[in-house]
Amino acid sequence: MRARTAASVAVVTLVAGLAGAQAPPRWVERTKADVRGGKGSFHEIVDTVVKGEQVQIVRVEDKWLFVRTPRAKQGYVFEAALSNQPVTGGGSDFLKLAPGDASTSATAASAGAKGIYAEQYARQKGFDYGVVRWVEDNQPPGNVMEAFVKEGGLQ
Amino acid sequence: MRRGLAILLVLALAGCGGRMDVGSVMSAAQTMITQGPGAVTGAFADMDEPQEIELGRAVTANVGSRYKLLRDPALTGYVAQVGNVVAARSERPDLRYYFAVLDAPEVNAFAAPGGYVFITRGSLMLMRDEAMLAGVLGHEVAHVALRHGVEAIKAQKRKDLAVLGLQQGLRFTSAAPFTQAISLAADTVAEQIVLKGFSRAEEEEADRAGFQYARAAGYDPAGLRDFLAALVQRGAGDTRTATFFSTHPGTEDRMKEQEKLLAAAAGRGQRNPDRFAKAVASR
Lengths: 155, 283
What we know:
heterodimer; A: SH3 type barrels; five-stranded antiparallel sheet; B: 14 helices; 5% strand
């Protein structure tokens, strides 16, 4: 009887411990990293995390981590962008110097400095920056990519 | 004294490169004068991803001045879909890649830092199926994923002060020097990828990596080998292939290396000739 009670207590304690366990944290070690809706850079950006920010790992899928961000958004981040050790935060001088909101934009990690410097360069050289915009505007979205992979028998 | 030394140093460095104009040299010298010797160390020891993407945009604008962009959304979308499938298997699958078709009859393909990949209409006309396209795009994606374009900047460090600053770290306190640095870096990279090509070692590394990307994506990894074979068959004497042979040396050796990789790889993947023909051959 005493042994059964002890076993029950142990099971309850174990279950309670598991339920209360926090998902392991990771820290962003790149200037910025995009959190995406799928495992691929062609999926939409749901949030952007910056160097030093902590994210919670929900699950691991291959080399992609499904995380919860400090802003309670969930999505995929590539493992190389995160560290399992705390990282000191620090903004990018490059992004801070960009006019406007390039240092805080939710899409700044993908957008670089939003083309501000490149557009200045193009203007100085007499190049058509519309070429860059056209290329960036004519890329396939995530749902198109998924269908393309499936139809082509690819992985 | 400090001003004089800075200007002398900048002029000496610029003289090695031979591509800086006087205004650029004086402006770079001014940066050293106002920010001191410490300005040449520190902050940008490694180009981070936003900087690399910005450089890629500038290079794309430069490429757009050398080639006419083929503004065909359907064809561009198809090429981008194949490219993204192989890029997802690269070392940098989280980088956003952008693919573009250049309206030129010559056979060529090249990649800029930050994920900007270009292929000419002439290259597409030489292909028979999607596996060949995946092989070529895999090779170009590898240049991006392995940061070969960024390495091209490093190779110029003794020749060009502003590029040196981008690599070793000018601690910029205003946006103007970065604009200047990215301008010179874009000129360097554009010239490298369009006219000179990467080193033989980098080309071989990109071949091996591209082979693995295409294979992992489910394509027949013989695509690049078949493309190179088609090129050799056309011959270096053809005006449409001359640029490719000059920027991608050792084509027959590269084919042999691909043969070795194929011999060691089990199984084959998709070629998708019908989908390729529908998207490309009719244009």
